[in-house]
Amino acid sequence: MDKQLKINSKQLLSKIKIILIIYLVLQISCQPPSKESQITESGSFIFLEQDITQVQQGYKDGTHTIKEVVQAYLDRIEEIDKNGPAINSIIQVNPDVIQIAEELDIEMNEGKIRGPLHGIPVVLKDNIDTYDKMATTCGSRALMNSFPLKDSYIAKQLRDAGAIIIGKANLSEWANFRGELSTSGWSGVGGQTKN
Predict the structure, then answer these.
(1) Do 129 and 82 share a domain, yes or no?
(2) Dihedral sign (CA 144, 145, 147, 148)
(3) Is there a contact between 117 and 52 (Cβ–Cβ < 8 Å)?
(4) 187 and 151 assigned to the same domain
(5) Which letter does DSSP use for residue 75 in this model?
(6) Are the C-beta atoms of residues 129 and 151 closer than 8 Å to each other?
(7) Same domain membership, residue 68 and residue 130
(8) Domain around 8
(9) pLDDT by residue for the chain (195 residues), tens digit each?
């Protein structure tokens, strides 16, 4: 009888542990998000759910200009990447991006469209060469002053199609070729990305 009581006690303890674990998981998952994790109110970033066609239709309709869209994205980077939840995903912003947007607005007003991405902001990983005032660091401090002498093939194709390269995204340093145990999303230049 003592043996059977011990077995039943062990089974009961195991069941209680499982119930407690389930309870804790449910408690944690049902908590409201912290203020830090809340990005913005719905609707405060009007381009969140818009695709390329919708953004370009807004250009044609006069709803917004390329400069306004670029500024909205710069504000968004400041709001959630540098402040708020501070996801730390952007290493650098193109310092000439507003001037480029203004030039593309002028071209559009004159009827010149560079291509299917005219006026569409894009962010490239920081291991893609761009010929502008942004360094290409691969996330490494060793390349902080590396300014390529020409665009990479993909950057040139994007620019020729009318896209605006607004910045460079953080990445695992050297695209995670440092070793098997390196931290994903961390670089010496950008720190840890939290997305």
Answers:
(1) yes
(2) negative
(3) yes
(4) yes
(5) H
(6) yes
(7) yes
(8) 1-30
(9) 555 555 566 676 667 767 766 655 555 555 454 433 333 444 477 787 888 999 999 999 999 999 999 999 999 999 988 888 888 899 999 999 999 999 999 999 999 999 999 999 999 999 999 999 999 888 888 888 888 899 999 999 999 999 999 999 998 877 776 667 677 887 878 888 887
Report the 10 Å Cβ neighbour count for 80. 18
The answer to whether 162 touches 117, Cβ cutoff 8 Å, is: yes
Q: What is the CATH number of the domain that holds 118?
A: 3.90.1300.10
Q: Is residue 96 part of a domain?
A: yes
Neighbours of 59 (CB within 10 A): 21
Decide if 40 is inside a domain.
no
* Separation of alpha carbons 105 and 5, rounded Å: 81
Query: Is the overall model pTM greater than 0.90, yes or no?
Result: no
Residue type, 101: A
Handedness of CA 57, 49, 47, 88 (dihedral sign): negative
The CA angle 43-48-51, to the nearest 5 degrees, is 130
